[in-house]
Design a protein that fits this description.
The structure holds two protein chains of two kinds.
Chain A lengths: L1 H11 L11 H30 L4 H22 L4 H20 L21 H19 L9 H28 L3 H17 L4 H21 L2 H10 L10 H13 L24 H34 L3 H25 L17 H20 L1
Chain B lengths: L1 H11 L7 H37 L1 H12 E6 L6 E2 L5 E13 L1 H4 L5 H13 L3 H8 L7 E7 L1 H9 L7 E10 L7 H4 L11 H5 L1 H5 L3 E6 L12 E4 L6 E4 L3 H17 L6 E7 L5 E7 L13 H13 L1 H16 L2 H4 L9 H10 L8 E4 L2 E4 L2 E4 L7 E4 H7 L2 H22 L26 H8 L8 H12 L3 E4 L3 E5 L5 E4 L3 E5 L3 H16 L14 E8 L8 E9 L6 E8 L8 H19 L8 H7 L1 E2 L8 H11 L2 E5 L7 E3 L5 E2 L4 E5 L7 E3 L8 H10 L3 E5 L8 E7 L5 E3 L3 E8 L4
Parallel strand pairs in B: 2-8, 23-26, 28-31
Antiparallel strand pairs in B: 1-6, 2-3, 3-4, 3-5, 6-7, 8-16, 9-10, 9-21, 11-14, 12-13, 15-18, 16-17, 19-20, 20-21, 22-25, 24-26, 27-30, 29-31
Helix pairs in contact in B: 5-6, 11-21, 12-13, 15-17, 15-20, 16-20, 17-18
The chains are: A mainly alpha, B alpha+beta.
């Protein structure tokens, strides 16, 4: 009797066949992260959902919906041979750039033009551009033939333009569009991902250093031309002095993290989520985790991402071809940089830029594209 | 781990790779491993930083977070009431509301600030612009709109509260003084935060205030409740009520008469009066004039001062503020305890007490006054030019003779003056429970030469406060027992239970009972026949001593007229001190202007205190004969009865029997007075009362009889010496029935 039951139950849940042969470790850690993310998103969002929408479940219901959409997307990408994207890499990047550029014509939401479509159905094409760029760079860089070492500066310049010019131009265009939205955090993310891919793809150090210095100089000039940069910088250096305005979020985040201590106040027991931290379900969800689950809760989140990254690195290392390895490491880089930037901001290590925490922060586009890119990795892991 | 170690070994260990493509992949793997190391480093970095923020700095963040998440609501304690000795409330607290707004809350919806401001401005009668300025401070969570609004305004606001999001009425309390100016210097007043600033309000502030309580509870960022039950109560304790020794009725009498005296005598520098229970040291009344309204303590009451201040304000704002402060402090100053003055002849009581106690003088001793006495080469004059001639010790007191007292003072000497003034509490503060008490300035024995001894004997050359002097004189007449003066009788809790009672504090036996009794008699004589006779009230045995002191600098000729009295003289219950500072009304002698004031006060408060009248045979004779009842009698019978009693009867009308008579039968008049009797029902003939003030007694009598009235002398019956009518009742110019008794009072002039 009992055995029959167990058998029945075993039969009850079956992974879609597309996941056969996928990296099971990655699948497991993804499951844990998604579950964990939904729970924390609910806990963090309930008070503000209640006060703004009159429904404590408002955000979590939508988030669960996005998870399902994301899982469908992941299933789709997991079943598509990742090598196929190589053929369409140019089209993909062109379309995403075009869509991103199109946002500039859309009405601004909270002072930024990042969305296509309306309201909660809106998507951010900048999420798409991240993946398109990773595929494009992985494809190009794995085929790239590098010029021999230059003997003089002119030769270097010629080689640079010939070998690296197109990348810089592409990245430049994307960055300009993103900065026009404006979407600084996405710009930083894309530059970081591109930088890592250039490194892994074997771009000459001389190219990288010269480009990076030029980019930093350009970025600094651009940032300083904006009035709010200095204020942000000052509030970053001493958030408590600006606790009423610029430093408010960070100070409130500190309060939440500090309140948590080693073991936290208990799941659902955050006090800072009660309208102290604005939109606690978004960028600052990590501080609510810290408050409710303590340092151990924070550690568990970092550890889970660590496992995810580890699995990703393992898959990348096991790839039979450079393109696949680079796609995997590109996506893993994307996640890692987001996690590091997000937690860095929340704990006051990095100036406040506004990066979400993958799988935890509320938000549709990023979750769907994140899961879709996970599907790509899963597909690649099948072929290893 | 096995899979990665295999790959790492493959990459690093140099496993043979066949073709170029493979070598490219190998390089990529190597770089991926490098990137992975970078990832690890980054994760370690954020973990470390999280640990720092959460576990190290977190300790203080946690405290700050709790401070932010909890709401502290102060529960104000109710300030105690101040009662008079008969539990009549003199200072009470009422619940009022303070209107505060949370602009950040209001401004969440556009257009709301304007609406709320408009409503608030209309209801609270404020300028819209002012209110809007506060309401539109978006970044603020707390702005006070109006403090302590009256009940009608708070009721109006409560009615429209639903239209006022972000507006809160905080419970607060406000002090009310039902009698405004009454006993203002004793009661004192409170400031904006109900803190006592002067008088009893200041002195007993810690008792009156009580202890405010708190409720600490969890709150979200907009002050709403959190779903956590975190609440902690700290109970508030209401303040204690203070029961004064002041008697509202006596204080009222004193203030009324003092006010009149200030006006009549054009007193320039204020006046003070104290009534003290000599047996317990309780202050029954303490008044300072001019006074001020406790409900508006910051308003200058003196019209002349206001005018001067306005003038200064036009030219010099800074000077105005300074002068305003000075004027306020002067107005708030309790002259009875904070002002020092030279007591003048009232001090002769003390000199006499010392001399009698030390057996340096006998009642039968005689002294000679030529009008001047030479002391160590300087001529010191008596107030009476020409002198008093030969006089007994008793007469010397009655005459308030300076040369006689200089002789007595010389017998006392510096050392005894010094030790006795300590004993009488004149060298230190009395310790009365009122703020701002001053102490007199007295000679040190080593600097007291013959001249100082001479002036001391009649109360000049040193300073005392009124409270010091009345306490000392009270000791003299209270069988020599010095009682510490105090104005608070007891402290009550909010249920009316006595928490603490302040009973009379016996400080010291200063002089003997015998000395006290001798002085009671001597001082009664001062009032009945001596310089204090203007204070005489028939039927009451009043003792006392007048004084006229010269103020420093002597060249300006400014005076202080004062008198210390007590009653009943044979068993003193109360002592009264009155002081008029700088009278400019023509008369300045204590006996002339402070004496009648003393008399008026005694006349009102002695019956109130239940002191019964006793008449000596002489007094009875002066009181006259009772008018017989003749209503209902026939003409003949009436004439016979009136004649028998010694009165003249005037029959009016042609009826057979008397239907009404004036004066009525209860009055006592001297023989020879006229009774007017009506034999028919008719309205009595109304006549105009003539003005007899400043007439001699005889002149007044003639004038009144000629006008168809009867006259009766009240107050002093002494007719010797220069004396004129100074009070009459009914007043001059009023209509009164023919035959009405006009009561007049004599005022003797030329009494120091």
């Amino acid at each position: 009797m009992k055995e029959k039951d167990r058998k029945k139950r075993k039969k009850g849940f079956k992974l879609p066949s597309v996941y056969k042969g996928c990296d099971s470790g990655l699948l497991m850690v993804l499951t844990v992260l998604l579950t964990y993310g939904i729970i924390m998103c609910f806990s963090a969002s309930a008070p503000s959902a209640q006060s703004q929408m009159g429904d404590a479940y408002y955000f979590v219901k939508r988030q669960i919906g996005w998870v399902f959409i994301g899982l469908i997307a992941m299933t789709v990408t997991a079943s598509i041979d990742a090598k196929i994207y190589r053929k369409y890499s140019k089209v993909l990047i062109a379309v995403s750039i075009a869509l991103t550029a199109l946002t500039l014509a859309m009405p601004a939401v909270k002072g930024a033009k990042r969305w296509l479509g309306v309201g909660s159905l809106g998507i951010q094409p900048s999420e798409m551009i991240k993946i398109a760029l990773i595929i494009f760079l992985a494809d190009r860089l794995s085929k790239q033939q590098w010029s021999p070492r230059a003997n003089n500066l002119t030769e270097f310049a010629v080689n640079y333009v010939k070998d690296f010019g197109k990348y810089v131009l592409l990245l430049g265009i994307i960055c300009v569009i993103l900065l026009l939205q404006p979407h600084l955090s996405c710009t930083v993310l894309i530059c970081a991902v591109a930088g890592f891919l250039f490194l892994v793809g074997g771009v000459k150090w001389s190219y990288l250093i010269s480009t990076a210095s030029a980019a930093v100089a350009a970025l600094a000039t651009f940032a300083l031309s904006k009035g709010y940069t200095m204020e942000r910088l000052q509030s970053y250096l001493d958030p408590f002095k600006y606790a009423k305005d610029e430093g408010y979020q960070v100070v409130q985040s500190f309060y939440a993290i500090g309140s948590g201590g080693l073991f936290g106040l208990g799941l659902g027991q955050s006090r800072q989520k009660f309208l102290y931290i604005p939109e606690p379900q978004n960028d600052f969800i990590f501080s609510i985790i810290c408050e409710e689950l303590g340092f151990f809760g924070a550690l568990s989140v970092i550890l889970l991402f660590g496992i995810l990254i580890y699995r990703g690195v393992v898959i990348a290392l096991n790839c039979k071809d450079t393109y696949s390895a680079m796609v995997v490491i590109g996506i893993i880089t994307l996640i890692t940089v987001q996690v590091v930037l997000n937690i860095g901001v929340v704990t006051g290590l990095i100036p406040n830029t506004g990066v979400s925490l993958p799988f935890f922060s509320y938000g549709g586009s990023s979750l769907v594209f994140m899961l879709a890119s996970m599907g790509i990795i899963l597909n690649i892991s099948k072929n290893n | 781990m096995p899979e990665i170690s295999g790959i790492v070994a493959e990459i690093c260990g140099g496993v043979a790779v066949e073709n170029g493509n493979k070598s490219g992949l190998r390089k990529v793997r190597k770089r991926i491993l490098g990137a992975a190391c970078l990832f690890l480093a980054m994760l370690v970095l954020i973990t470390g930083n999280t640990a720092k923020v959460q576990l190290i700095d977190g300790v203080k963040y946690k405290q700050w977070a709790i401070a932010q998440q909890t709401r502290d609501k102060i529960i104000n304690s109710k300030r105690g009431t101040i009662y008079d000795r008969n539990m009549k409330p003199l200072a009470v607290s009422a619940t009022v509301y303070t209107v505060v707004v949370s602009p950040s809350e209001i401004c969440k919806v556009s257009g709301r600030a304007e609406k709320v401001s408009k409503l608030l401005a209309d209801t609270l009668k404020l300028e819209y612009e002012e209110v809007y300025k506060k309401v539109s401070k978006t970044s603020s969570d707390y702005e006070e709109i109006k403090a302590k609004i009256e009940k009608d305004e708070s009721d109006a606001l409560f009615a429209i509260m639903k239209d006022l999001p972000g507006v809160t009425l905080l419970e607060d309390s406000k002090r009310y003084y039902p009698f405004n100016n009454f006993a203002s210097h004793v009661i004192g007043f409170t400031g904006k935060d109900n803190q006592g600033l002067s008088g009893i309000e200041y002195m007993y502030d810690e008792f009156l205030t009580g202890k405010s309580g708190r409720v600490v509870s969890a709150a979200d960022s907009v002050g709403g409740d959190m779903p956590y039950k975190y609440e902690k109560y700290y109970n508030s304790e209401d303040g204690l009520s203070v029961v004064l020794t002041i008697d509202e009725v006596i204080q009222h009498f004193v203030e009324k008469h003092l006010e009149t005296a200030v006006i009549e005598n054009d007193v320039k520098n204020g006046a003070a009066a104290i009534v003290m229970d000599v047996k317990t040291g309780e202050i029954l009344a303490m008044a300072t004039k001019p006074d001020f309204d406790l409900n508006q303590p910051f308003e200058i009451t003196d019209a002349a001062t206001v005018e001067v201040l306005e003038e200064i304000k036009k030219t010099d704002e800074e000077e105005y503020v300074k002068q305003l402060g000075i004027a306020r402090n002067k107005m708030w100053k309790n002259k009875a305890v904070s002002d020092t003055y030279e007591p003048g002849s009232t001090f002769k009581i003390i000199t006499s007490a010392i001399a009698l106690e030390e057996n340096l003088v006998n009642v039968t001793d005689s002294f000679y006054c030529s009008g001047v006495k030479n002391v160590s080469g300087s001529n010191i004059h008596c107030w009476k030019s020409g002198g008093h001639g030969m006089q007994s010790f008793s007469q010397a007191i009655q005459n308030s003779c300076n040369p006689a007292f200089m002789d007595i003072g010389a017998r006392v000497g510096a050392t005894r003056f010094s030790s006795y003034t300590s004993g009488f509490g004149l060298r230190s503060k009395t310790g009365i429970d009122l703020p701002g008490e001053e102490s007199g300035v007295f000679f040190q024995p080593n600097v007291m030469g013959p001249v100082e001894v001479a002036t001391t004997s009649f109360g000049q050359g040193f300073q005392v406060t009124p409270i010091q002097l009345i306490s000392a004189v009270s000791a003299v007449v209270n069988d020599g027992k010095y009682m510490k003066p105090h104005v608070v009788k007891s402290l009550l809790d909010s249920d009316g239970n006595i928490v603490e009672e302040f009973e009379g504090e016996f400080v010291k036996q200063v002089v003997s009972k015998e000395t006290s009794e001798i002085l009671q008699t001597l001082l009664e004589d001062v009032v009945s026949v001596g310089s204090g006779k203007n204070a005489y009230v028939e039927g009451y045995r009043i003792g006392g001593k007048t004084g006229t002191s010269e103020k420093q600098p002597r060249s300006e000729g400014k005076k202080i007229a004062s008198m210390v009295g007590f009653a009943p003289a044979n068993d003193p219950q109360i002592a009264v001190l009155v002081l008029l500072d700088e009278p400019e009304g023509g008369q300045y002698f204590g006996g002339v202007i402070a004496g009648p004031l003393m008399g008026s006060i005694m006349e009102d408060i002695l019956p109130y205190l239940g002191v019964s009248k006793t008449f000596t045979s002489e007094e009875s004779e002066q009181a006259g004969v009772s008018i017989p009842e003749i209503v209902g009698l026939t003409r003949g019978e009436a004439l016979a009865k009136a004649g028998e009693a010694g009165f003249t009867l005037n029959l009016i009308g042609d009826g057979e029997t008397v239907v009404s008579q004036i004066p009525k039968s209860s009055a006592r008049l001297k023989k020879g007075a006229s009774i007017y009797a009506y034999t028919t029902e008719q309205e009595p003939e109304m006549l105009t009362v003539p003005d007899v003030s400043n007439m001699s007694l005889l002149g007044a009598n003639t004038a009144l009889i000629n006008s168809g009235f009867n006259m009766k002398l009240t107050g002093t019956q002494e007719v010797d010496g220069e004396a004129v009518i100074f009070q009459q009742d009914p007043a001059a110019g009023t209509k009164a029935a023919k035959g009405t008794v006009v009561y007049v009072k004599l005022r003797h002039l030329g009494l120091e």
